[in-house]
Amino acid sequence: MLEIRDLRVTYGNDVVLNGVDLDLADGETLAIIGESGTGKTTLGMSIMRLVEAKVQGSIRFNGEDLLFLPDTELQEIRWNRIAMLFQNVNNVLNPVHTVLNQVAEPMIEHKLRSKKEALVKAGELLTKFGLPPKRFSAYPHQLSGGEQQRVLLSMALANDPDLLILDEPLSSLDVTTREELGNLLGMINGHRAKLVITHDLDTASRLSEKLAVLYGGKIVETGLTQQVLRYPRHPYTRALIRAYPNMTTVKDLQGIKGRMMRPVSGCPFHPRCTQAIEKCSQEIPLLTQSQGRLVACHRGGIITLLSVVNLSKSFDSLKAVDSVSLHIEAGETLALVGQSGSGKTTLAKTIMGLYSPSDGMIYLEGKEVANKGRDFYKQVQMIFQNPGESLSHRLSVLELVMEPMEVQRIGTKEQRQKKAIQTIGEVELPQTEDFLNTYPHHLSGGELQRVAIARALVLNPDLLIADEPTAFLDASVGAKILKLLLNLQERRGLSMLYITHDIAAARKISDRIAVMLDGEIIEEGPSNEIVTAPKQAYTKRLLSSASALHLSCYS
Amino acid sequence: MHISLKKEIKQSHIGKAGLIILLLVIVIAVLAPLLTRYNPNQQSAASLLSPSYTHWLGTNQVGQDIWSQLLYGARTSLLVGFGVGILSLMLSILFGVSSALIGGLYDNIIMRIVDAFIVIPMIVVVILVAAYIRPDLFVLILLLAALSWQGGARVMRAQALSLKETGHVSASRTFGASLLYIAWRHIVPDLGPILLVEFIFGVRRAVFVEAGLAFLGIGDPMLVSWGMMMRDAMKFSYLNVWQWWLVPAGVALSLTIVGLTFVSHAAESVLDPRLRGEAVA
User: Which of A172, A195, A495, B92 could form a disulfide with A463 if both were Cys (CB 3.0 to 4.6 A apart)?
Assistant: First the structure.
């Protein structure tokens, strides 16, 4: 029904939409999501031909190109066949007319109904959208924001349009009104197609079957809403979900590094992307098929950094790790949860090459890792459970952090020193001469763990294996370490394999959780699903025995 | 982990005494030419003279000055002692640490060789070999070193095996460090006190064995040595020369060995706190 091809909108030199392709069929609801400034509203306005800008490309509505339609015909289409609910409620309603009259107005204007009929229809619509009849004769300023939104929705639907463009329909409403209106909007389907423009993932997931993610004037990912929100494939989509406070995801909020810039050569997201390669800054990626949806990314969406296939490790007759398969995506945290003795640490050490595997394969960025040489360790680093033990007592803080670079033979001594000091700052440790020359036994547990983290990060690894990094710390210090790791993930796109027995901590830091028992992974999935709907009895037990405050009001 | 070896030795009276004795012997050995006018290898007067103003300890059967021989004998003793000590320590580290780190077949082969050497009494082998090849000073050092590293290697291996499992060694491996780097940067520095004790053991044993060989008359007859002096003195025991010939050499040798024993005892207490007498602050 709606077919947008290569839509480009330019205000002066400012390219707001840069080649957008969209398809919308009868009865379908498509949500356009993205941060403010990505061009969402411009897209909606362009369809209504309400933008005062240079518009190129084509917008076909039932075969007719709206961009080349004469104004008179366009008038016929607006409101009658395409209606739009505008974002800013306050400016849209006319302050000198009652709401009933305003809802009836488009029908009268377009001569669809007699005035009397129109008023009746308007009343029906308003009732349908939950405005009590006694408020029909109110003036807009007498209504609350939620009531105004009900009026606007009635207005938009007055002429029974085929396409409804909803620009932030629920964003300014309180949550309960949002819920109610959302349900009402969900019901007005039929043959009508809806385009929901929003930055609010709740609205998008509530109303739409399909989702398109807009960034920097381009669609970066599009697919079925359920799938896209559950397993985002584009780094931007994932970042957007991570930044959105909601009741579904359990991981702590994370922002997106940097800020949106325009214009950008190549992929619009590459300055903020943590997996960008050189090509990303040169060529604009096209939307291509990737795992059941379209993703515009030169790397085919979020890459799989490490995958482990049927890895086993036995010590004599004991199978510590029994045919474990798992994968970790770039910029993702996988929490490996299980009680002590379940083989978590053995698995980590086997991946790290501290134990040689009895069986199975390890792939790094799709390439098999046969002999772990210096190259492997440049990409994969580990933080050990006991920081005091993992730091040599003979080396000063600076020497400790420099050691990995020394081993890897990176740079000159001065360069190593500079990099080490910079990394020490990055983990929020003092960079003073005194501190750099301190020996580990003079540091507190939290400081030791930070030094260990700095040492693991100094090589700029892509994957960090963190084995109970907070086990030896008290909660407040541990919390700071977890925050630090999350921040590093946000800034550097660090992937993490986070090993813990504590599912309460795991859900705060991980995107996915794998539950390990007796050397096997018995359950694996998005953290929120594992936490709220565990399938295995053991997972349920882990959850019920996890730390809680045991307040009497819950019992 | 931070026990200062220097402090530990200085704080123990035995250690201090040992150090003083050792220093004395070292000073004598170094300053030998300044303390005597005679070359110990040349005839300087009539043979078998009693002590006099010119020859403090008299002369031996070929008219060499015994005082000079005593001084220069310290040189031989210490040279052999420290030479063997250092060499055998290096071999111990090399074989012990590499065995621990490499493991597998290599470890097995090295350790079986070590076992074999430990079973055979070293002194017998040394006597046999030395009797055949008549070693000069340098070859003697090599020979003794080659026969005395095995015990040390076993100790180093045991220690390295436990150090190998420590966190900072694992960490270093996860930076991609080679075995050589790990050995040099993480294992050997942590062997510290053991190295010292093993070293002093080695020195003491070598001093003793060298004296023994010379006493038995095996070895370089041109080398002035306390063992050789005692052997010569014994031949003239009927002449009452033992007072200024046999006794000084014997005392010098004993003192040196006692000094080394004292130092090693003090150093050992660093490794094993149970050996410490009173609590050391």
Answer: A495
Which tokens sit at A38?
A: 């990505």
The tokens of A505 are what? 């901590």
Residue B227 belongs to what H/E stretch? helix B226-235
- In the block, tokens 């995107």 appear at A511
- B176 contacts A441? CB cut-off 8 A: no
Closest CA to A213 of A87, A302, A333, A330: A302
Span B73-119, pLDDT tens digits: 888 889 999 999 999 999 999 999 999 999 899 999 999 999 998 89
How large is the average pLDDT for residues A480-486?
89
- Cα-based torsion angle of the residue sequence A471, A474, A476, A482 in order, rounded to the nearest 10 degrees: -10
- The length of chain A, given as a count of residues: 555
User: In degrees rounded to 5, what are phi and psi of residue A56?
Assistant: -125, 165
- The answer to whether the CB atoms of A382 and B174 lie below 8 A apart is yes
Distance (Å, whole) CA B97 – CA B180:
10
Closest by CA to B165, choosing from B149, B182, B181, is B182
With residue A362 as reference, give the H or E element that holds it.
Answer: strand A359-364
Q: Which residue is listed with tokens 């590293």?
A: B149
Please indicate whether, in this complex, the C-beta atoms of B171 and A352 are within 8 angstroms of each other.
no
A394/B189 touch (CB, cutoff 8 Å), yes or no: yes
Is the predicted pLDDT of residue B276 greater than 60, yes or no?
no
Chain A 141-160, residues with CB within 8 Å of chain B CB atoms: none
Asked if A353 contacts A372 with a C-beta cutoff of 8 angstroms, the reply is: yes
Strand arrangement, sheet containing A359-364: A318-329, A304-315, A359-364, A367-368
Q: A353 in contact with B at a CB cutoff of 8 Å?
A: yes
Which ranges of A493-536 does DSSP label H, i.e. alpha helix?
503-509, 527-532
> Which residues neighbour A257 within 8 Å (Cβ) at sequence distance 6 or greater?
A272, A274, A490, A491
Q: Are strands A64-65 and A54-61 parallel, antiparallel or unpaired?
A: antiparallel
What beta strand segments (E) does A365-401 contain? Answer: 367-368, 380-383
Residue A168, min C-alpha distance to chain B (Å)? 50
| A374 and chain B in contact, CB less than 8 A | yes
Cα A528 to Cα A302, A511, A517: the distances in Å are 20, 8, 20
Of A390, A408, A441, the CB nearest to B168: A390
Cβ-contact A62, A77 below 8 angstroms: no
**Cα–Cα distance, A214 to A30 (Å, whole number):** 12
Interchain CB distance below 8 Å, A354 and B170: yes
> At CA B204, angle to CA B203 and CA B208, rounded to 5?
115
From the list A377, A384, A407, the residue facing B181 with the nearest CB is A407
Chain A contact probe: residue of B172, B175, B184 with most A CBs at under 10 A: B175
Judge: B1–A392 Cβ closer than 8 Å, yes or no: no
The encoded tokens of residue A114 equal 């007699």
B168:A392 CB<8 A:
yes
Please say whether the beta carbons of A292 and A221 come within 8 A: no
**A386 interfacial to chain B (CB closer than 8 Å):** yes
B169/chain A closest Cα distance in angstroms: 7
Give the closest-approach CA distance of A371 to chain B in angstroms: 11
Nearest CA-CA distance, residue B260 and chain A, Å: 28
- Burial call A169-203: b when 16+ CB within 10 Å, e when fewer: bbebbeeebbebbbeebeeeeeebbbbbbbbbbbb
Cross-strand bridge partners of residue A164: A83, A194
A371, A391, A393, best to mutate vs chain B, most B CBs in 10 Å: A393
pLDDT above 90 as % of chain B? 32
Helix, strand, coil shares, percent, chain A, to 5: 40, 25, 35
**Residue contacts between A and B (CB atoms, under 8 Å):** 61
Model pTM?
0.81
